[in-house]
């Protein structure tokens, strides 16, 4: 039993896809930063997102004020946590074989997720702040998704401005291109690693905070975002920061469209098939990144 | 020292073979699961320990084998022994489909591809529900075969450890390790890295498939979430790392110690147990990358075949 | 690390010792005793996904044991539950039931939480011919496989949405749609023979849309979009808790307005209303048991529960655990012994009311007399609206569109 698909429905899911896509882009940008600067694949990325989501949840639960304001707490908090992780653990595997960084971040992820299970219990939480939708013609724009979308866009734009225009941002980009040359130019590469991981964690946490208003919060929520962030990076090209933006929007659209034309179940596999296809046919990503 | 070890092995095997005669149902279950983990950890070791290509989705082969065997037993009335072997074959086919494209790329991409694999398999199983029962799971006709499964698992563990021994002490093994240490140099030396990686990968997928089939027989009922859980991959990895990846007896050591500790101590505290696993991974990677056995090997200059 | 260094110097010996310990642990069984309490074994989901529900069930078991013992026990002996945590995993449950039966040598067993775990452990109890009263399993297939020692307490999954569809048909609605989580129980609710799709058709409703979503799914936008286009009069969602909440929210977000909307599991928990607030109004839910129902001993059970577990909200899992235990005790009394076959025969003949409702099984152990009820959230309270003989109020019909509330 299925319904015939009309253009309105397609339009609706395109809207849903774009709203989701911006969040993916923002979170993936963080992952791209870590990989670009340090060549570390941060499997714990989704876990950082989850911690951001819980920050927002507790903010709202304990203070009762606008959960979006929790960004003011979540961002700096996770920035610091990110720097701490980098300083104590990640930095030791930056120059080690990739196997080590993969396993390390994997271990960190497992440990943190289960610490969250112990601390927060696996009870599902949610932040009921904005419910319902704006009705624009035949389309429904979910209020919470729209607002989160807006914040994601703002944060991402800020992040890009930072990378393009500030000295630190340029240093980060330089290190992404080549850490040796950056060192020769006098850039303190260790410090760049620190800041990059911190910023990336903050971006992931922002994703978590924004998503907390939309979906259910539970300790394992991050895993799927880690995978999606990787997918975005592969689509956009490793080390290609604007590519992460495109990749995110693309992923959002593909997910929604395949849920519409096929079923929601299948759309999970579709994302994966997309990954394998891109890896096979154009491993440098759709926009071209580092050839690896 | 060498004689002690060489003598202990057949004696140990004999004891294990005789054990079911005196054990309770629980004891058999315990040991059967232990063998299963030895086989899984060792299989993971073959791809990730030897070639350095980290497989985060290895449980996908376990689940594929479980479903392959379960379908043959419940829908086509196969006997569970050949069905389990076919489960292994199914896993190898999956490995071929995934490995062929993904192993041609470098490490990180392979890891990413493997990361999502168990979820995709879950989705596929649910999608082809006519065949697999989808979310309802699949029940095998009732058969009480714990003792036979015990031997099956034991043989699987023995076989894969034997394979590990042969590989690690041979030139093939050396080539795997060269790929792990410096893939570009390996290629420069003329090693067809893609082919070797694929070989290791296929090999590492077979036993989890068989073991999955045995597991399905033993449980009598499987559903997607129970045969494709992330925790299984995590446990495999922890066991192999802790014991010593890239060695022959490391995964066995890791599996035995961690499983016993887990059953006697941690299993009551699910989340604490997993935090510990995560912490162990971090500690091993940072402080003892060669695992317990690796430390022992260096300290006591044990030969490579231990 | 130091300990291991020590060990290795002495060779394999200590490892053999450890192996011997493991073997010993596996083979040891406690000595039998004469007038010791009757041991009832079970594994419950005390941690993991089903933790909240498993813990509720545990309270039911514990309370029943306490009350039975206060009344003098069974066959002149007290009863005692031997409980383990299966961590919401079927495989763990299987191991634990093996342990309970072969090592702890329990006399009888009761079931775990959820259909999936019950299905897995039923293989074990069947193997040892140990009768198992399984209060928290609603899937028909478990009890229709030719098993002799598994007994169902609840109404089966297939009838969960019967109330919703019955009221819909009586009120003249024409079209129905269903969504469900793709796991054993919700799937059976909708798609099994005699399930919601069949019931709808039999009542003259046209089924316009059915779709499954994966367990753990959080994004229902595409499903909602399709639902809006299908525009069903009544929407039935076979869910657990998280998805029930998510679906309700996203219905509002994508402006899906059926005239009746009901969920299965999860809608009855107070947290459902706590999380959704006003958005939970008008939602129908199916439940195996509610505290207000006039079953014998229910009021006393409620009072005892709040005395024993102050501050804990009662749920049907506790009542089910209690009721199931009542049945088992009655069966042991009638059998006059702990022999598995005798207890089995006794259970097959039982036709009684527990605090949980009616209990009677057919020759397969399948429940045939327990009735479900349907409630609707009205002003923050659950009001039972179906069936008529147990209803406490009328359904608020139709559910107004979101923008008119």
Structural features:
heterotrimer, A: 292 residues, mainly alpha, two-stranded antiparallel ribbon, 2 strands, 72% helix, globular, C: 405 residues, alpha/beta, Rossmann fold, 2 domains, seven-stranded mixed beta sheet, five-stranded parallel beta sheet, 42% helix, elongated
Explain this structure to me?
Chain A is mainly alpha-helical. Chain A has a domain at 21-222. Chain A has eleven helices and two strands; from the N terminus they run ααααββααααααα. Chain A has a two-stranded antiparallel ribbon. In chain A, helix 3 packs antiparallel against helix 8 (189-212). The longest helix of chain A is centred in the N-terminal third of the chain and has 32 residues, at 7-38. The mean pLDDT of chain A is 88. Chain B is mostly helical and 306 residues long. Chain B has a domain at 23-229. Helices cover 77% and strands 1% of the residues of chain B. Chain B has 16 helices and two strands. Chain B has a two-stranded antiparallel sheet. Chain B is globular. Chain C has two domains: 38-155 and 294-359, Rossmann fold; 158-287 and 372-404, Response regulator (Rossmann fold, 3-Layer(aba) Sandwich). Chain C is 42% helix and 17% strand. Chain C contains 15 helices and 14 strands. In chain C, strands 7-6-8-9-10-13-14 form a seven-stranded mixed sheet, sandwiched between helices. In chain C, strands 2-1-3-4-5 form a five-stranded parallel sheet, sandwiched between helices. In chain C, strands 11-12 form a two-stranded antiparallel ribbon. In chain C, helix 3 (51-70) crosses helix 14 and helix 14 packs across helix 15. The longest helix of chain C has 20 residues, at 51-70. Residues 1-13 and 24-34 of chain C have low confidence and may be disordered. Chain A binds chain B through residues 35, 41, 43, 89, 92-93, 97-100, 102-104, 106-115, 117-118, 223-224, 226-227, 230-231, 234, 265-266, 268-269, 271-272, 275-276, 279-280, 283, 292, and chain B through 48, 52-54, 56, 98, 101-102, 105-109, 111-113, 115-117, 119-120, 123-124, 126-127, 180-181, 230, 234, 237, 241, 271-272, 274-275, 277-282, 284-286, 289.
């Amino acid at each position: 039993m299925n319904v015939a698909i009309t253009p309105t429905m397609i339009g609706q899911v395109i809207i849903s896809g774009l709203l989701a896509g911006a969040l993916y882009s923002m979170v993936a940008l963080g992952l791209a930063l870590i990989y670009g600067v340090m060549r570390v694949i941060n499997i714990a990325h989704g876990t950082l997102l989850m911690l951001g989501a819980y920050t927002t949840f507790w903010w709202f639960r304990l203070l009762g004020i606008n959960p979006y304001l929790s960004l003011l707490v979540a961002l700096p908090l996770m920035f610091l946590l990110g720097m701490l992780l980098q300083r104590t653990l990640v930095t030791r595997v930056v120059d080690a074989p990739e196997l080590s960084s993969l396993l390390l971040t994997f271990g960190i992820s497992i440990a943190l997720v289960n610490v969250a299970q112990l601390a927060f219990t696996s009870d599902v939480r949610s932040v009921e702040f904005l419910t319902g939708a704006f009705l624009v013609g035949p389309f429904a724009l979910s209020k919470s998704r729209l607002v989160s979308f807006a914040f994601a866009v703002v944060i991402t734009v800020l992040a890009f401005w930072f990378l393009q225009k500030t000295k630190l941002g340029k240093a980060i980009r330089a290190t992404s291109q080549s850490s040796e040359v950056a060192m020769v130019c006098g850039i303190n590469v260790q410090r760049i690693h620190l800041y990059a991981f911190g910023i990336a964690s903050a971006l992931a946490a922002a994703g978590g905070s924004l998503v907390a208003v939309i979906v259910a919060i539970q300790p394992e929520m991050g895993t799927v975002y880690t995978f999606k962030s990787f997918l975005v990076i592969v689509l956009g090209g490793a080390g290609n920061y604007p590519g992460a933006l495109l990749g995110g929007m693309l992923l959002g659209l593909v997910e929604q469209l395949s849920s519409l034309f096929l079923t929601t179940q299948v759309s999970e596999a579709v994302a994966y098939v997309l990954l394998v296809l891109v890896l096979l046919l154009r491993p440098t990503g759709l926009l071209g990144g580092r050839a690896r | 020292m060498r004689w002690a070890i060489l003598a202990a092995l057949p004696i140990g095997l004999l004891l294990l073979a005789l054990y079911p005669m005196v054990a309770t149902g629980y004891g058999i279950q315990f040991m059967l699961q232990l063998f299963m983990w030895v086989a899984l950890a060792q299989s993971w070791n073959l791809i990730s320990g030897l070639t350095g290509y980290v497989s985060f989705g290895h449980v996908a082969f376990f689940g594929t084998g479980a479903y392959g065997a379960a379908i043959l037993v419940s829908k086509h009335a196969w006997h569970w022994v050949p069905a389990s072997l076919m489960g292994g074959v199914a896993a190898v086919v999956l490995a071929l489909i995934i490995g062929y494209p993904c192993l041609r790329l470098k490490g990180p991409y392979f890891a990413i591809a493997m990361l999502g694999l168990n979820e995709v398999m879950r989705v596929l199983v649910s999608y082809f529900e006519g065949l697999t029962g989808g979310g309802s799971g699949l029940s095998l006709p009732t058969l009480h075969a714990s003792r036979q499964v015990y031997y099956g698992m034991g043989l699987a563990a023995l076989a894969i450890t034997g394979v590990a021994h042969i590989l690690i002490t041979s030139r093939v093994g050396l080539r795997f390790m060269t790929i792990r240490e410096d893939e570009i140099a390996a290629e420069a030396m003329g090693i067809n890295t893609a082919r070797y990686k694929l070989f290791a990968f296929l090999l590492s997928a077979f036993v989890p498939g068989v073991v999955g089939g045995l597991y399905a027989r033993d449980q009598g009922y499987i559903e997607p979430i129970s045969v494709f859980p992330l925790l299984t991959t995590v446990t495999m990895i922890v066991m192999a790392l802790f014991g010593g990846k890239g060695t022959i007896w490391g995964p066995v050591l890791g599996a035995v110690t961690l499983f016993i500790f887990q059953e006697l101590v941690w299993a009551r505290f699910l989340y604490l147990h997993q935090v510990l696993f995560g912490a162990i991974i971090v500690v091993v990677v940072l402080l003892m990358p060669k695992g317990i056995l690796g430390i022992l090997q260096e300290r006591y200059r044990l030969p490579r075949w231990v | 690390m130091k300990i291991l260094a020590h060990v290795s110097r002495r060779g394999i010996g200590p490892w053999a010792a450890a192996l011997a310990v493991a073997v010993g642990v596996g083979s040891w069984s406690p000595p039998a005793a004469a007038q010791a309490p009757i041991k009832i074994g079970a594994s419950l989901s005390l941690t993991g996904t089903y933790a909240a529900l498993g813990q509720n069930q545990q309270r039911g078991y514990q309370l029943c044991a306490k009350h039975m013992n206060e009344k003098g026990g069974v066959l002149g002996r007290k009863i005692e539950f031997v409980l383990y945590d299966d961590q919401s995993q079927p495989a763990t449950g299987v191991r634990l039931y093996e342990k309970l039966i072969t090592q702890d040598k329990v006399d009888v067993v009761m079931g775990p939480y959820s259909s999936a775990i019950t299905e897995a452990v039923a293989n074990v109890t069947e193997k040892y011919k140990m009768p198992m009263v399984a209060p928290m399993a609603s899937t028909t297939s478990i009890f229709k496989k030719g098993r002799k020692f598994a007994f169902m307490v609840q109404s089966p999954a297939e009838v969960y949405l019967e109330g919703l569809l019955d009221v819909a048909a009586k009120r003249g609605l024409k079209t129905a749609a269903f969504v469900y989580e793709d796991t054993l129980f919700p799937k059976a609710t909708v798609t099994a023979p005699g399930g919601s799709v069949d019931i709808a058709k039999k009542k003259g409703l046209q089924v316009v849309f059915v779709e499954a979503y994966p367990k753990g799914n959080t994004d229902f936008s595409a499903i909602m979009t399709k639902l809006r286009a299908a525009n069903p009069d009544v929407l039935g969602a076979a869910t657990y808790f998280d998805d029930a909440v998510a679906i309700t929210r996203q219905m509002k977000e994508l402006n899906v307005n059926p005239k009746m909307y009901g969920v299965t599991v999860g809608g009855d928990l107070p947290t459902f209303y706590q999380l959704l607030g006003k958005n939970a109004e008008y939602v129908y839910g199916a439940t195996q048991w509610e505290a207000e129902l006039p079953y014998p001993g229910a009021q006393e059970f409620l009072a005892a529960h709040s005395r024993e577990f102050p501050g804990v909200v009662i749920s049907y899992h506790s009542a089910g655990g209690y009721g199931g235990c009542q049945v088992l005790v009655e069966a042991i009394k009638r059998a006059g012994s702990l022999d598995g076959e005798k207890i089995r025969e006794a259970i097959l003949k039982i036709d009684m009311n527990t605090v949980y409702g009616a209990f009677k099984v057919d020759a397969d152990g399948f429940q045939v007399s327990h009735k479900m009820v349907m409630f609707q959230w009205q002003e923050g309270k659950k009001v039972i609206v179906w069936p008529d003989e147990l209803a406490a109020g009328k359904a608020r019909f139709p559910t107004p569109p979101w923008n008119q509330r």
